[in-house]
């Protein structure tokens, strides 16, 4: 499928190379050889979010990396990614990752246990509301390369996998999925995978996991059928946004649902 505004690719590369430096909108627009107004328009059309929001997303991803791979304090990490207020950094991190920076730093302790528990669990049935008041969204997930493991699927309000999905589930293997009682609205379907043999850091910091996302929103309207969603997991592309939401957190929440239903 042909991508829009391929010139944005070099802007993305520039942002990633200068992520620890102050990056102004004027600077990015000048680098792309557009006026700021026109640059914002085409960047958002290509990426789904404004350029400065995308920059903040990459910085939070770098904060996740630093929390796992260094002994820097949370305050120092907040400064490293351009956030002078520790309180603001902690709030934004928590909202978009699903846990505080300190909780995320300590998450490897239980993350391997969650994956092991899912591998050993046989009963993956999750109760479905058969008297759904709202819409049903069904689909099927395949992968472009052989894969064995879990697939995490969610409907998000923005085209970035951040914060808890509005609707989410885990699949034990590739195949069909279903969300019921989906309220009218606009959603972005996103999914990623965790192989059974993955190292803990590989899914705590999911840089290379197979993934998929809908570029255009899925519109749910009252009384109207929802198109069947056929999606393909692929290796990460340059313009794929970071997966900010904690995958171990989603595993834990799913385990609680199937264990204590």
TrEMBL record:
Gene3D superfamilies membership: Homeodomain-like (1.10.10.60)
Name listed for the protein in its UniProt record: AraC family transcriptional regulator
Listed GO MF terms: DNA-binding transcription factor activity; sequence-specific DNA binding
SUPFAM superfamilies, alphabetized: Homeodomain-like
InterPro entries documented for this protein: Homeodomain-like_sf, HTH_AraC
Top-level division of the source organism's lineage: Bacteria
Keyword Signal: no
Keywords recorded for this protein, A-Z: DNA-binding, Transcription, Transcription regulation
Record carries keyword Transcription: yes
Domain HTH araC/xylS-type: 9-107
